[in-house]
Specification:
Layout (H helix, E strand, L loop, with lengths): L4 E3 L5 E3 L2 H10 L4 H13 L7 H15 L1 H7 L1 H6 L6 H13 L3 E9 L4 E9 L3 E8 L7 E2 L1 H15 L2 H7 L3 E8 L2 E2 L1 H10 L2 E3 L9 H8 L12 H9 L5 H12 L6 H16 L1
Parallel strand pairs: 5-7, 6-8, 7-9
Antiparallel strand pairs: 1-2, 3-4, 4-5
Helix pairs in contact: 1-2, 2-3, 3-4, 7-9, 12-13
């Protein structure tokens, strides 16, 4: 196949790499037969300048025809960006990941630094560690968290660490400072974070322990990944604090019925949730 330049979400151009597509399908759990078929059909319709969104959309449609529930998992990154423009459900989502990992979690905790009060998006604590988490949510996959973000967060943590609360809590625990984003970091942000002791977790950074790894490890998936719910239904559920598929798995009919979803569709939603959680 001749080289084809694709347009990334941030406007940058790069040569299409079919192995990246195959790896993303493989990560979602697609069979090798389906991976080869989808990759071949996507390659046949490519043209210079095609956007990564168009490639994703075509691959998603082909995958959905063959392995519906694998397609749900394949759409996970897009589903995260649909957690709402205000970003609060994403904070809840990150909090749930740490709860699943047996931390005691608080969202939006107000803590005194040496100079001023700070609100930490997520705090996670166990007998061994205290983790302060700043959450950066972006509604577009092409937007990156940059150096200014890491500099700002480090300054906040520096003040917090000199305050009484941090000194008392961290005294007997390892202290970790995290920035978690649903997209990516710029190379300068990564360089500074590594140097300054700020852990960065993005969609595919670091190589191990990134956001996608954490979701796979904890089997937590946002309701926005579900194909069996409409956009309005997802929005209503999020507004009521229902962020995770596992909430539907637990609440089932009793949870969904008040939202006016017909019984036959509730059964479809529950089936999709069970398949996704099983995977």
């Amino acid at each position: 196949m001749n080289e084809i330049f694709i347009t990334k979400a941030n406007g940058e151009k790069e040569i299409f790499d079919i192995e990246k597509l195959k790896n993303s399908l493989r990560r979602a759990g697609a069979s090798e037969l389906v991976i080869e078929d989808v990759s071949k059909k996507v390659s046949e319709v490519l043209f210079d300048g095609v956007s990564t969104h168009e490639i994703y959309q075509k691959a998603f449609e082909l995958l959905r025809e063959k392995e519906k529930y694998t397609a749900t998992k394949y759409s996970l990154r897009r589903a995260i960006t649909e957690l709402g423009p205000q970003g609060f459900p994403f904070e809840d989502f990150i909090g749930e990941i740490f709860r699943e990992k047996k931390y005691k979690v608080e969202i939006g905790k107000i803590i005194n630094g040496l100079c001023v009060l700070h609100e930490l998006d997520v705090t996670a604590i166990n007998d061994d560690e205290f983790i302060g988490v700043e959450v950066k949510f972006h509604t577009r996959t092409g937007v990156k968290s940059d150096l200014k973000t890491v500099l700002y967060v480090k300054a906040r943590f520096d003040d917090l660490m000199k305050g009484k609360y941090y000194r008392d809590v961290v005294k007997t625990r390892k202290q970790r400072r995290l920035i978690v984003t649903n997209t990516k970091f710029t190379s300068r942000a990564v360089q500074y974070g590594e140097c300054a002791g700020i852990e960065l977790i993005g969609w595919n950074y670091p190589n191990k322990g990134n956001l996608q790894d954490l979701i796979d490890e904890t089997h937590l998936h946002p309701i926005t990944a579900l194909q069996s719910l409409t956009k309005n239904e997802k929005k209503e559920l999020l507004n009521q604090g229902i962020v995770l598929c596992k909430d539907i798995r637990i609440g089932r009919y009793a949870l969904l019925k008040p939202f006016g979803i017909p019984e036959n569709r509730i059964a479809e939603v529950i089936k999709e949730v069970e398949e996704l959680c099983k995977s």
